[in-house]
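User: Thanks for the earlier help. One more: D-glycero-beta-D-manno-heptose-7-phosphate kinase. Can you show the sequence and predicted structure together?

Assistant: Of course, both are below.
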Amino acid sequence: MKKLFRQFNDLTILVVGDVMLDTYLWGNVDRISPEAPVPVVSVKKKESRLGGAANVVLNVMALGATPLVCTAIGDDTAGDEILDIIRGKQLSDEGIIQVTGRPTTVKTRVIAQGQQIVRIDSETEKQLQEADSRALTNKIIALLDKRRVDAIIFEDYDKGVISPEMIHEIVTLGNQRNIITVVDPKKRNFLDYHNVTLFKPNLKELREGLKMEIVPGDHQQLEAAVTKLQKTLNASLVMVTLSEAGVYMSSKTDKRLLPAHVRDISDVSGAGDTVIATATCCLAAGADEFTAAAIANLAGGLVCEHTGVVPIDKEHLQAEASKILGNH
């Protein structure tokens, strides 16, 4: 296990997807507005963090690997803020384009007395213009030419950065160069990810993507859906995250349900990002698919113990993995 975790440090993982800015406003409520029956929040503190696909980047980084982030953001204040944070973390910004007239996705959460009162989303879900999509694809190809990349993660939030054409071009290139390709899908491009190494939907995404009814806990329905998906996409591996029920991993020769490890669940946000980052690092470092699934399953559970979106703690994960899974 130690050797596997040590190998993460030599990996370079390219993450392409919808990067967002998560803004938090903390304050107090001590009166109701005279304008409408709503609380007035007196803001005491403001913080901006990387969100969306960038949370996968932060998890890749926390595991010791080098992430390369590829995305399109707006040529606006929020976009500049994302670039400032990325540069502040000593990460490369050479895979990022800023698009004039396109708003950067910002999710603002207003929190008072420890309670989230409202979330305000400023975003567009429109597909990138063809010229901008081409420019981003060219940046990705240039990075793949310039750097030794071990894996590519598509972190798709349906905000228009990833297109079917981009998927086809980058996956084809990845396969030609023996680079692992991994997908965390959403609805729009769900069935466009052909010939990838690992496809990782959650149960809701699997249901919606295949338009199939899958009752939670119905193993036969789940197996039928995954078999259909694997055949349709020609994916080497499909891993379905089942929240408190664990993960279901299917290769072309074997299938296993790995139960979750019972934990004090504080907050599930960001767990999927941790799972995909961990599974990718494990596969890229040479772990077999079921070891990768088991460690990723464990990682997803560990981050749920914390409130808010937090990257995985590598040392804690290694200690837990050695304890629970043995010292592979």
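User: Great, one quick takeaway?

Assistant: The domain at 2-20+51-101+124-325 is CATH 3.40.1190.20 (UDP-N-acetylmuramoyl-L-alanine:D-glutamate ligase).
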